[in-house]
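Narrative summary of target 7.
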Amino acid sequence: MTIDLGNIIKTDLRRVWPFEPEFTRWLAETDNLAALGEELGLDLLLIQTEANVGDFNVDILVEEEGTGIKAIIENQLETTDHDHLGKLITYASGHGAGYIIWIFKEVREEHRQAIDWLNEHTTDEVNFFAVKLELWQIGDSKPAPKFDVICRPNEWAKTIKNASGRGEPSEGNLRQLEFWTALHEYGVEHYKDIRFQSPRAQAYMDVSIGSSKAHVTMVIRSQKKIMSCELFISNNKPLFDGLLERKTAIEKEIGMELDWQRLEHAKAARVIISHEFSMEDLDRRIDYFNWLLKNISSFKRVFARHVKEVEQSL
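Modeled conformation, tokenized:
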């Protein structure tokens, strides 16, 4: 019996985007930024294309949803060159970017080494990504883009470098990073509905719900021996109040009572559930992962809709 299979063919980028501004407009579309962000572990929201930096323009200026950290994207549908490497630094400083993303057709070895060097020798507030773009098709199918991350920040190295003024690692930071890295690996395999951030050496990991006003987050508080899932609203009391009016419906959908904290003396507000937790109890780690991921998935599903509806009514 003969099985008829197609051949995977690599397509030249210039056949689809003869000019780089055409690619910039394509990448700036919401779904395409989301596809790039998924490979990077970032939730990217468009701010502007062709954003000014003096006499120059960065191709795309975005921000990370939930944190507001700015990111620049520089496109080069050719092999990397020194000119674009210099532009990356100029644009990043001009916009105070925390993420610098270079997309290209091919990367020269000296430029790959330069990006790795920058990631190793800058603080954890500055992160460089080098991304190879390819187009593939099967037979006469439409070409499909594929982002291949060649260089990314080494969070372990940056944590070790920046954890203290002496350059020695903070044990707490390293354990946080190790915990989130293990949770990330477990979650990618078992919870397909969650798009994860890159693990970082901090007490929380955010998850986007498609709003710039609120996000859900998983938090570990080692000293208090608790972990929590939260809806975090940074500076929008009317949004919190609108959700509070829906308290009964929201809690019914999630299946439990929630702790609604308006935080009267702070700009932020949150809705939270907590569970006992011990960083030292490795035998229960999978149980911890499942509690966090099950509940954050429920928070994401329920609050995404209610936040959107309340925002539209304000």
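The chain has two domains: 8-153, 167-313.
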